[in-house]
Design brief:
Blueprint lengths: L1 E17 L5 E20 L5 E5 L11 H12 L7 E6 L10 H16 L6 H8 L6 H6 L2 E6 L3 E4 L7 E6 L6 H8 L10 H9 L3 H5 L3 E2 L7 H16 L4 E4 L6 E5 L2 H12 L4 E6 L2
């Protein structure tokens, strides 16, 4: 079976505080985009679980979230692990704040459910995804959603009006655990207007959503990296983006466009900056 694993963007991301279990309570509006990895799952008769990718530095064993997802599926279903070969053609940048690994894991769970005749609803599959990672449940359901708790409490929202997104991941990566450890001691400049974004989605107001986008993790970035993300956002706005923000814990910055021509011009301009640049659409 072949299945696509879509990247996600954070239209908003707010950290409400640290929980007794050590995690943080989050409140964020998530959005799927067309940029995706392609996974192929094939049963094998040797009883081994293998992962192959087009990136040599990614793990090819149980350390890969895609393999972990398969193990959690069999565990939840009361089944003995069986031979499975997972091939991942990566297009979504790694360590970019776009849930690339989580989306791969979600794709494996969706595919295994289909291969067994869809015995579970997507909501039930998402519950299994909680055992793999906080972003996995959202990646199973996709679309436009409000995510709360660790990210596993999901409320579907009216879809974002279809638009173009230009994404730019700078040359560096960000440590998610390090940013979460730092966020409690950072003085946040402001917080996203999550309710305003939800109201704009209900009204079908793309401009209203775009101008309210914000991610508190931008305030927790080291100074040089924060400046780089800010520069990318400024270029996107200068090129006609309706709004720009950072996704997840970064460092990918993105802008939303209602004009494909302007989006293509922004992609071309950012391509000279280095890093990885993509033009995609919302899903």
């Amino acid at each position: 079976m072949e299945v696509r694993a879509h990247a996600k963007l954070n239209l908003t991301l707010d950290v409400l505080g640290r929980r007794p279990d050590g995690y943080h309570d989050l409140r964020m509006v998530m959005q799927s985009v067309a940029l995706a990895d392609v996974l192929t799952l094939e049963e094998s008769g040797d009883g081994e679980l293998r992962v192959r990718t087009n990136l040599h530095f990614l793990p090819n064993n149980e350390k890969n979230l895609a393999a972990q997802a398969a193990l959690r599926w069999w565990e939840a279903r009361g089944q003995v692990p069986r031979g499975l070969e997972i091939t991942i053609e990566k297009s979504v940048p790694v360590c970019a704040g776009m849930a690339g690994g989580s989306s791969d894991a979600a794709a494996v769970l969706r595919a295994l459910n289909q291969m067994e005749g869809a015995p579970l609803s997507l909501r039930e599959v998402a519950k299994i995804g909680e055992r793999v990672g906080s972003d996995v449940p959202y990646c199973i359901l996709g679309g436009t959603a409000l995510a709360e708790g660790r990210g596993e409490i999901l409320t579907p929202l009216p879809p974002l009006p279809q638009c173009w997104a230009v994404l730019c991941k700078p040359e560096f990566s960000i440590s998610t655990p390090a940013l979460f450890a730092k966020i409690d001691s950072v003085r946040l400049r402001c917080r996203p207007d999550t309710q305003g974004v939800i109201a704009a989605l209900e009204a079908g107001d793309l401009h209203g959503v775009a101008r309210r986008m914000y991610n508190v993790f931008e305030d927790a970035l080291p100074e040089r990296q924060r400046a780089r993300v800010s520069d990318i956002k400024n270029v996107l706005i200068q090129c006609g983006a309706l709004g720009a923000s950072m996704s997840g814990t970064g460092p990918t910055a993105f802008g939303l466009f209602d004009d494909e021509g302007l989006a293509r011009e922004a992609r071309e301009r950012l391509a000279d900056w280095g890093g990885e640049v993509f033009l995609t659409q919302t899903v």
